[in-house]
Write a structure and sequence with these properties.
This protein has helices spanning 2-9, 17-40, 43-54, 62-79. The protein has 81 residues and is an all-alpha fold.
Protein backbone atom coordinates (compact mmCIF):
# COMPACT_ATOMS: atom_id res chain seq x y z
CA UNK A 1 0.00 0.00 0.00
CA UNK A 2 3.00 2.27 0.51
CA UNK A 3 3.83 2.09 -3.20
CA UNK A 4 0.36 3.29 -4.16
CA UNK A 5 0.60 6.37 -1.96
CA UNK A 6 4.10 7.07 -3.29
CA UNK A 7 2.79 6.96 -6.87
CA UNK A 8 -0.15 9.20 -5.97
CA UNK A 9 2.22 11.73 -4.44
CA UNK A 10 3.98 11.87 -7.83
CA UNK A 11 0.67 12.69 -9.50
CA UNK A 12 0.04 9.24 -10.96
CA UNK A 13 -3.33 7.60 -10.51
CA UNK A 14 -5.50 4.90 -12.06
CA UNK A 15 -7.84 5.99 -14.85
CA UNK A 16 -11.57 5.82 -14.23
CA UNK A 17 -13.63 2.92 -15.64
CA UNK A 18 -15.34 5.38 -18.00
CA UNK A 19 -11.94 6.40 -19.40
CA UNK A 20 -10.86 2.79 -19.89
CA UNK A 21 -14.16 1.95 -21.60
CA UNK A 22 -13.84 4.94 -23.93
CA UNK A 23 -10.23 4.13 -24.77
CA UNK A 24 -11.16 0.55 -25.66
CA UNK A 25 -14.20 1.55 -27.74
CA UNK A 26 -12.36 4.25 -29.68
CA UNK A 27 -9.36 1.96 -30.11
CA UNK A 28 -11.57 -0.72 -31.66
CA UNK A 29 -13.20 1.89 -33.90
CA UNK A 30 -9.71 2.98 -34.92
CA UNK A 31 -8.72 -0.57 -35.81
CA UNK A 32 -11.86 -0.93 -37.94
CA UNK A 33 -11.26 2.39 -39.69
CA UNK A 34 -7.60 1.57 -40.31
CA UNK A 35 -8.45 -1.80 -41.84
CA UNK A 36 -11.20 -0.29 -43.97
CA UNK A 37 -8.91 2.48 -45.16
CA UNK A 38 -6.17 0.02 -46.03
CA UNK A 39 -8.43 -2.36 -47.96
CA UNK A 40 -10.38 0.39 -49.75
CA UNK A 41 -7.27 2.39 -50.64
CA UNK A 42 -8.38 5.44 -48.66
CA UNK A 43 -5.30 6.94 -46.99
CA UNK A 44 -7.20 9.65 -45.08
CA UNK A 45 -9.46 7.04 -43.44
CA UNK A 46 -6.40 4.95 -42.63
CA UNK A 47 -4.69 7.88 -40.89
CA UNK A 48 -7.86 8.82 -39.03
CA UNK A 49 -8.05 5.22 -37.80
CA UNK A 50 -4.47 5.42 -36.61
CA UNK A 51 -5.27 8.68 -34.81
CA UNK A 52 -8.27 7.00 -33.14
CA UNK A 53 -6.02 4.22 -31.88
CA UNK A 54 -3.27 6.46 -30.53
CA UNK A 55 -4.90 9.62 -29.17
CA UNK A 56 -6.00 8.08 -25.81
CA UNK A 57 -2.30 8.00 -24.88
CA UNK A 58 -2.17 11.80 -25.21
CA UNK A 59 -5.46 12.76 -23.53
CA UNK A 60 -5.81 12.56 -19.76
CA UNK A 61 -9.36 13.79 -19.13
CA UNK A 62 -12.38 11.53 -19.62
CA UNK A 63 -14.59 14.26 -21.11
CA UNK A 64 -11.87 15.28 -23.56
CA UNK A 65 -11.37 11.63 -24.51
CA UNK A 66 -15.02 11.37 -25.54
CA UNK A 67 -15.11 14.73 -27.34
CA UNK A 68 -12.00 14.02 -29.41
CA UNK A 69 -13.09 10.43 -30.06
CA UNK A 70 -16.51 11.52 -31.26
CA UNK A 71 -14.93 14.15 -33.53
CA UNK A 72 -12.53 11.61 -35.04
CA UNK A 73 -15.33 9.08 -35.53
CA UNK A 74 -17.41 11.76 -37.26
CA UNK A 75 -14.45 12.55 -39.51
CA UNK A 76 -14.14 8.87 -40.45
CA UNK A 77 -17.88 8.70 -41.12
CA UNK A 78 -17.82 11.79 -43.33
CA UNK A 79 -14.71 10.60 -45.18
CA UNK A 80 -16.15 7.22 -46.13
CA UNK A 81 -18.71 8.59 -48.57
Amino acid sequence: MDELSALQSLGLSWPSPAYIFGAVVFGLAGIAAYRYGSKAGRPRTKWLGLALMLYPYLVSGTALLYVVGAALCMAVFLDRG
